[in-house]
Amino acid sequence: MADAFTSEIAKSLLGKLGSFSVQEFCLAWGLEADVARLEKRLSAITAVLSDAEQKQSKNDRIRFWLNDLREVLYDAEDVLDEIECETLRRQVVKTTGSTSRKVRRFFSSSNKIAFRSRMGHKIKSIIERLADISSLKSDFNLSEQTIDCSHVLHGETEMNRSFESFSGLIGRDNDKERIINLLAAPSKVGDAHPFVLPIVGMGGLGKTSLAKSVCDAENVKSHFELKMEACVSDDFSLKQVMQKIIESATEKRCADLNEGKLIQNLEDIMKGKKYLLLLDDVWNEEAQKWLLLQTLLSKGADGSKIIVTTRSRRVAEIMGTVAAHNLSLLGQEDCLSLFYKCAFKEGQKELYPNLVGIGKEIVAKCKQVPLAVINLGTQLYGKIDETEWKSVRDSEKWEEEGDGILPALKISYQRLPTHLKRCFLYCSVFPKDYIFPDLELVQFWMAQGLILQSSNPNEKLEDVGLRYVRELISRCFFQGYVDFNYVAGFKMHDLMHDLASSLAQNEFSIISSQNHQISKTTRHLSVLDTDSFFHQTLPKFANNFHQVRSIVFDDSIVGPPCKPDFEKCLMEFKHLRSLELLGDSGFEAFPERMGTLKHLRYLDFRNNTKIKRLPKSIFKLQSLQILVTGDGLEELPKDVRHMISLRFLYLITQQKRLPEGGIGCLECLQTLFIAQCENLENLCEDMQGLKSLRKLVIDECDSLISLPRSIKCLTTLEELFIIDCEQLDLMTIKEEKEEKIQPLPLSLRIVLFANLPATLALPEQLLQGSAESLQTFIIKRCPNIREIPDCIGNLKKLQNLEISDCPSLRKRCRRGTGEDWPKIKHIPKIKVDNDDSDEETSD
Question: Between the CA of residue 712 and those of 622, 670, 751, what are the distances in Å?
Answer without folding.
Answer: 28, 16, 14
